[in-house]
Amino acid sequence: MSLTVPALLTPSAGAPFERGTVERRELGEHDVLIDIAYAGICHSDIHQAREEWGKAIFPMVPGHEIAGVISAVGSGVTKHAVGDRAGVGCFVDSCRECEMCLAGEEQFCLKGNVATYNGKTYDGTPTYGGYSTQIVVDENYALRIPEGISLDVAAPLLCAGITLYSPLRHWGAGPGKKVAIVGMGGLGHMGVQLASALGAEVTVLSQSLSKQEDGMTLGADHYYATSDRQTFRDLRRSFDLIISTVGADIDVDAYLSLLRFEGSLVFVGLPENKQSFRVFSLTGARRNLSGSNIGGIRETQEMLDFCAEHGIGSVIETITADDVDKAYDRVVNSDVRYRFVIDTSTIPAS
Ligand code: NAP
Ligand code: ZN
Ligand code: ZN
Q1: Is any atom of ligand 1 closer than 6 Å to the C-beta of 268?
Q2: Which fold has domain 3-157+315-346?
Q3: Ligand 1 mean position, distance from CA 32 (Å)
Q4: Closest atom, ligand 1, to C-alpha of 46
Q5: How far apart are CA 96 and CA 90, in angstroms?
Q6: What stretch(es) of the chain map to CATH 3.40.50.720?
Q7: Ligand 1: does its nearest atom lie under 6 Å from the Cβ of 245?
Q8: Is the CB of 61 under 6 A from ligand 1?
Q9: Which spans in the chain are helix H?
Q10: Where do you find CATH 3.90.180.10 in the chain?
Q11: How many Cβ atoms from other residues are within 10 Å of residue 210's Cβ?
């Protein structure tokens, strides 16, 4: 029998959240049931709930930064047990057959993976995310949250953490590498901690210096305001890797000019508008322009273990179910230090 569980849902694009319920499928042989404790608010939730990326499925229950405890397992489950601390990220299934899935890069599944919310399962059922009290997922798409990271600060690692860890690893952030993180928000503050723990020299490029102290505490070596044009003159040809976490339009040429010979500018932030750049900004120093999308299941587990080993977690502000609309506005205004996390025990109407 399917399970009816409390959830926060938005009925149409941009509409305020309401308390309601969603159906979770009956526990299958390879499924686990997770009692959700916390769900992070990612800027992607806002883009989708407000239909900034195109048509979305409503009602929507966002949430792809999920942390909780497993309360039931199907008869064939071998990877998890009742009582285990578990997380769910941006997708809950993938084709498992294509070359990307076989390589452990399910985020690039050629058939298209099944998004945790605002998606459809392969049989066409809409998916509902983590702003809820329970979720059923296939055991292969649930992560193990190591002891030593509490569930509230772990939740944002399932998207913000892996979204920065994966490109930092792919582009070789480490000792001797100069890395810049553009935007000191949910993703950015994870990037600072991870790049620093990997041994890179880390610079934050923020719109202002208002979060400088936090940035330095989290591991940045340098911190500059991009509102000051002098920053772009001072840092010309400085970086091996620049990761933009900005979800709005940026001056791509200005950031490319900050790259050394063969350096890379990598987008993880997802502006709704097309971005443009001059080809000359690449050719003059054989620079690279790329993008990165979350990470695969294996790498997400590696990231969680890395965070536990290095004492890394998200810096969070915990909110109740009543505060989600307000939190969305604050994220859009860059007024978040540094991730809102919903205490899902406040979702059932009291
Ligand atoms: P966030 O908490 O809002 O952080 C974004 C930061 O960008 C802000 O804190 C702000 O930092 C900076 N910023 C905002 N508006 C700006 C503007 N107009 N010009 C320059 N900088 C600006 O959001 P997030 O949750 O980290 O997500 C960031 C983006 O990444 C979103 O577009 C989201 O959809 C996307 N995302 C992508 C992936 C992926 O896999 N590729 C995964 C998750 C999220 P300062 O105040 O320091 O300037
Ligand atoms: Zn996200
Ligand atoms: Zn696949």
Answers
A1: yes
A2: Quinone Oxidoreductase; Chain A, domain 1 (3.90.180)
A3: 32
A4: 34
A5: 16
A6: 161-291
A7: yes
A8: no
A9: 43-49, 99-102, 151-154, 160-170, 186-197, 212-217, 230-234, 252-256, 280-283, 297-310, 324-332
A10: 3-157+315-346
A11: 11
Q: Which two tokens stand for residue 123?
A: 């049989």
Phi/psi at 188 (nearest 5 deg)? -60, -45
Sign of the alpha-carbon dihedral angle for 296, 297, 302, 305: positive
Q: Where are the alpha helices (DSSP H) in 37-185?
A: 43-49, 99-102, 151-154, 160-170
Per-residue confidence (pLDDT) for residue 350, from 0 to 100:
56
Q: Any idea which residue has 């919310």 for tokens?
A: 117
Strand segments (E) across the chain: 3-9, 18-24, 31-40, 66-73, 85-88, 91-93, 114-115, 134-138, 143-144, 178-182, 201-206, 222-225, 239-244, 259-267, 288-291, 316-319, 339-343
44-96 pLDDT tens trace: 999 999 999 999 999 999 999 999 999 999 999 999 999 999 999 999 999 99
* Length in residues, the chain: 350
* CATH number, span 161-291: 3.40.50.720
Average pLDDT over the chain, rounded to an integer: 97
Q: Is 213:186 a contact under the CB 8 Å cutoff?
A: no
163 lines ligand 1 (CB under 6 A): yes
Type of residue numbered 219: G
The crossing angle, in degrees rounded to 10, of helices 186-197 and 297-310 is: 70
